[in-house]
Hints:
Layout: E1 16-23, H1 29-36, E2 41-48, H2 55-64, H3 66-71, E3 80-83, H4 86-92, H5 94-108, E4 112-114, H6 115-126, E5 130-135, H7 139-151, E6 155-161, H8 177-184, E7 194-197, H9 205-215, E8 219-221, H10 222-234, H11 254-257
Parallel strand pairs: 1-2, 1-3, 3-4, 5-6, 5-7, 7-8
Helix pairs in contact: 1-10, 2-4, 4-5, 4-7, 6-10
Amino acid sequence: MSDNVNHPNREYSARALMGVAVPQANPIVEPEFSVLMPAGVGVIATRLQGSRTDSSNRIVEYLDNLGTSIEAFDSTKPDALGYACTGTSYMIGPQEEKKRVDIFQDHFGFPIITSAQAILMACHFLGVEKVALLAPYPQWMVDKSLIYWQQCGLVITHSARTTMDTTDTRAVYQMRAPMVMQAADNLDTSDADAILISGTGMPSLRVMSALSLKTGKPVLSSNLCLAWAMLQEVGVQPHAARSDKGEILIGEWVEKAALL
Length: 260
């Protein structure tokens, strides 16, 4: 697909219309996507549904119920869909993830990319093999994430968790940028090619630039990688990243993120 007006019949989203499936209580994905997507690219969201009492069940049920979430788009067919829950991939592993996503993709007729798959795509694109991981998860989820990335061939050199109560994974939605930066102070990045802020519910855009400039390492996040991978899938070129601003993969978002 060429990077021009690909859909002249649309009043808006003439370059691409992205769908994003967002965890039911997540208030972070849509605002961050709004500053990451270039002009002419629209985003429509649906909610992922799962248990409101059990975090581990909820995260898997999001994918179990993905068909229902997609059907909420009714007659609108996005050019690509982003599955914005990294934790699901950690829970079921890369092979089961691919198998199940492929089934939904074949059924609905458009590409579906998970945030974990997008992170791996970005690491391959950038030549990143070793990552320092910053996560908002309880320890059991961090352990699952380490296994997932090992199975994908990515080396996690060090990991750190946020300091707030993480017994309920939804607590991440209460995070603020200073709290993320404080947690990052406990992360040893010396042996890493890049820093990964995992979790689509952790507000990251206001942190990534400052952390990159502080450490001299590129900083990736679940939402950044997912937005970038979706643009790659539909053939839309993002603005060039500005290294002097701490941007990577996508450019011209630092100033916009400050206004969210």
